[in-house]
Write a structure and sequence with these properties.
Helix content: 25-40%
Strand order of the largest sheet: 1-9-6-2-5-3-4
Distance between the termini: 23 Å
Number of helices: 9
Radius of gyration: 18 Å
Order of helices and strands: HHEEHEHEHEHHEEHEEH
Shape: globular
Strand content: 5-15%
Structural class: alpha/beta
Length: 277
């Protein structure tokens, strides 16, 4: 029989119950994660995962137990790629994991979003937050391309932008393995043809993308295209060295992670027969 929404809800509830969390008397963990809120939010994400983007995963068993940094390419104007990776780790990984996102500094200024991001497991992307989470054996996801990747234009798709070095310094400082991730599909979900930077500055936003459907179609234009997602988890990479090394030394290690992601992206694109199937 086909899976119903109630089956999916029960599956989410069962898998969230298997995740060890230290909750206070009010049901929150030290970073504000609230399992009941996460369960409700994850149902919407899981519907997109199963029926809109029809996500396929490879190599998810490569996620090691304990602390880990998940490093991925980033695109799509809004962070649905992060949501799909998070959903994969809850529904497909064994044991299931809650992924801790490192949100941009401006996100806590957005009403509703600021609370939702914390209640579902994300935090503001500060160095201290990341170290605390890793030392608590959590799985942390980061996108070293930042907004340079998320708001890239359609003709720049799958061209990895410059990677920041912060994730590598944190990995060295906390002795954390890195799992590189390649997401194929997200870079075409909202094809952007322009980024109106002057308007973005006026609105105090990191970018103001114009896509093929927005603002032309109004709110309907915000709906992402039903592209097929393919997410590949690479083998864990471990690095040793001084986290305070010069940029050139850290940069060489960062390039190894970037090259691994680029290789997986190239393979995924070569194997893809259609944007939608």
């Amino acid at each position: 029989m086909p899976e119903t929404i109630f089956d999916l809800q029960r599956q989410i509830e069962a898998r969230i119950r298997r995740i060890p969390t230290r909750l206070n008397a009010y049901g929150y963990d030290p970073w504000g994660f609230h399992p009941d809120t996460a369960r409700r939010a994850m149902l919407v994400t899981a519907l997109l995962y199963r029926y809109w983007f029809r996500v396929e995963t490879q190599g998810i068993a490569n996620i090691p137990p304990g602390r880990v940094l998940l490093i991925s390419n980033h695109a799509g104007q809004i962070a649905l790629d992060a949501a799909m990776i998070s959903c994969a780790c809850l529904l497909e990984a064994e044991p299931p994991r809650v992924i801790r996102g490192m949100g941009e500094y401006w996100l806590p200024t957005v009403p509703w979003v600021n609370e939702l991001m914390v209640r579902t497991g994300s935090v503001v992307g500060t160095r201290k937050n990341c170290i605390d989470l890793l030392e608590n054996e959590e799985a942390v996801i980061a996108f070293p391309e930042g907004v340079r990747g998320m708001n890239k234009l359609i003709w720049e798709r799958y061209q990895l932008q410059e990677f920041g070095q912060g994730f590598m310094r944190l990995a060295l400082e906390t002795h954390t393995p890195i799992v590189p991730i390649a997401v194929v599909g997200s870079e075409e979900q909202a094809p952007a043809i322009a980024n109106v930077r002057s308007l973005a500055r006026l609105l105090r936003l990191p970018a103001f993308p114009v896509t093929l459907t927005w603002p032309l179609l109004g709110p309907l234009g915000l709906v992402p295209l039903p592209v097929k997602y393919r997410i590949t988890f690479g083998e864990p990479m471990t690095f040793e060295g001084n986290p305070s090394d010069e940029d050139e030394v850290i940069g060489e290690k960062v390039e190894q992670v970037k090259a691994s992601i680029a290789t997986m992206l190239a393979r995924g694109l070569a194997a893809r027969r259609s944007l939608f199937w």
